[in-house]
Design goal:
This protein is mainly alpha-helical. The protein folds into two domains: 42 residues; 92 residues, no CATH class. It is 71% helix and 0% strand. The protein contains five helices and no strands. The chain is rod-shaped and about 105 Å long. The N and C termini lie far apart (86 Å). Keywords: Membrane, Transmembrane, Transmembrane helix.
Length: 146
């Protein structure tokens, strides 16, 4: 096939299309560079925000929930007592958070054991339970060290 000087073969691009493609290149490079920089910043912020020890944070949260339980317990050790709403939920939350802390670090296994005893005492509403009261005392001591 013979091509004249002024004709462009049908399978080749015109000079105008090549110029358009070249003009897009800086935008594409800028978009990719912006994506990489943005992802790096997000990753850095995520790493900095998660710098704490997960087990220790769970243990502190368990102790905070225990503090709410202790505030709501009656001062006299009655056999059966009506507790304000939310106390049982806080006791269960303290137990579950301490179990998560113990899963993360063996240091918190005693805290988890003691809070399990406290939650059983609160759930049963037998606030005069000597084992539950003993676990409460030990859990408060554990929380003082967290």
């Amino acid at each position: 096939m013979r091509i004249r000087r002024n004709e462009i073969p049908p399978d080749e691009t015109s000079p105008e299309e090549t110029a358009d493609e070249r003009s897009r290149r800086p935008y594409v490079v800028g978009a990719v560079a912006g994506f990489v920089i943005g992802a790096s910043v997000i990753g850095l912020l995520w790493a900095v925000s998660g710098a704490g020890d997960g087990a220790a944070e769970d243990a502190r949260a368990a102790c905070a929930a225990l503090a709410k339980v202790v505030q709501s317990l009656p001062s006299d050790r009655t056999q059966q007592a009506a507790l304000p709403s939310g106390v049982v939920s806080h006791a269960i939350a303290a137990r579950e958070l301490s179990a998560a802390a113990a899963d993360g670090s063996a240091v918190y296994e005693d805290l988890a054991d003691h809070l399990d005893g406290v939650s059983r005492m609160v759930i049963s509403l037998n606030l005069a339970d000597p084992a539950g009261r003993h676990d409460l005392t030990l859990a408060l001591q554990d929380c003082a060290r967290v």
